[in-house]
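Protein entry
_____________
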Amino acid sequence: MVLSSGVNSGDGRERTTGAVSRRGLLTAGAGAAAGAWLLTACGSGGNADKAAATAAATGKAAAGGTLRIARPPASSAETLDPASSLSAYEYLGALYSRLVRRGSDGKPAADLAMSWEMSDEAKTWTFTLRDGVTFHNGQAFTSADAAYTLTHILDPATKSPQAGVLSTFVAASGISTPDKNTLVVKLKAAHAEFPTLLMHYNCYVIAKDSAKTTATKGIGTGPFKLASFTPAGPGKVVANTDYYGGKPVLDAIAFSSIAETQSRINALLSQQVDLISQTNLDSAGVKTVQASSTATVVEVKNAQWYTLPMLCTAAPFTDSKVRQAFKLAYDPAQVIKLAVQGHGTIAHDNPVPPDDPYRLDYTVSPDPEKAKALLKKAGHDKLTLPLYTSDYDSVLTPLALAMKDSVAHAGITLNIQNAPSDSYYTKIWMQKPLMTSYWYVGRPIDQLLSEIFHSGSAYNESKWSNPTFDGLIASARKETDDAKRKQLYQDAQKLMVDQDGTIMPFFASRMIGISKKVVNYHESGFEFDYLKIGLSA
């Protein structure tokens, strides 16, 4: 799921491993504390207490200095290989570059590839690569490195989460290098959005024949180079003065490993660290940090999206009328208010982000009475179900409680089951009929819809299967006319909202604790700008 600035689990989603428990609102048990939580969230007047947050400070940064980042401990198998499912995420953007990066508008932007063009009706893509780039060890970057990176991801032995996506379109035999500055990729099937697949964090470029050493050496072409690295422990990167984008403002970034969320907050407040990563502060954490004279909270808007997958292969959600009833039963305005104190944007059951040019503006209004009627048609006068959640993420349990309150008006009773965080994504996710989950914003439109909603996808968490939806995605990939391709993707979104197994109330802000000394923190796609971030002069 996203996001992560830590380690990815074997399921290919952005998830942390190791000490992942967050200081949720209901660590003693969801059911017993539900009433107290709702009272706290709503207040006697029914209004949520919206914790304050700010934008990151901007201004002149001092030349040099070391930014200190605290992160939770990860797996002892953590690696610097960007293709791996266990990659140390927050190191990657510092050490490596992609062929194509995610621009501020969400579209592909030049990185190691300066330009690209398609031919043969979107089946052949030619990338013109940047000249004069060197790896941290002085080796020149060429098309051979780009080709090797793709074949490394595709290699089954790598077990890269991105292999499942890329292998649908790319075979090693279709990759060629006519000269040192040109990479040609002949696809197995047309894909008019192919460069967007290369924006994924697993697609950072490594040097040819370096797979055996990349895990510990971290040699890339990025703005920083590795000084030290300990899996699940401390590490440090130092400025790459030969970086093709210019020298970073900072001299170094030092990473420390701190297990508990509150301990990371304490380290920030005592000025032992400057930024706490992979910690989405809950309302109490936000207030604690904001009360400090030395730290603040940066709100990254619409950074994550939260879902309640209804397992379409399990009763009662095998019946589409029950799924539709659940979507009509809840009030997203109420849920976003209770779950995240309004820090987010109502999603209307559509995971395509608000600023994505492909997003469909389509809303289905809450209708508890129609929900009751649909349930009755499905044979349920009332419905009582367990809803599984966890303190794995600070928002999951508040989301479950807010949903419980919101659907009660439609005759639906949800019994909250708070599962252990360390086994939530192995024993609950995609196994229980109704659960909470979350993802990080940043996937391009085709990968988002294909990876999480396409029939048979390993990460289709509701196991919804619809041949019409699958066909729309396939047609969109082949369509080279921009307007027609957009319409196909939007038709697919409408079908999802109306029929699929995913309740998606809102996009949520990510609340990040940061020192007031940090300037020019800018985040896009869950990565910050390593080149411009610095400490105040």
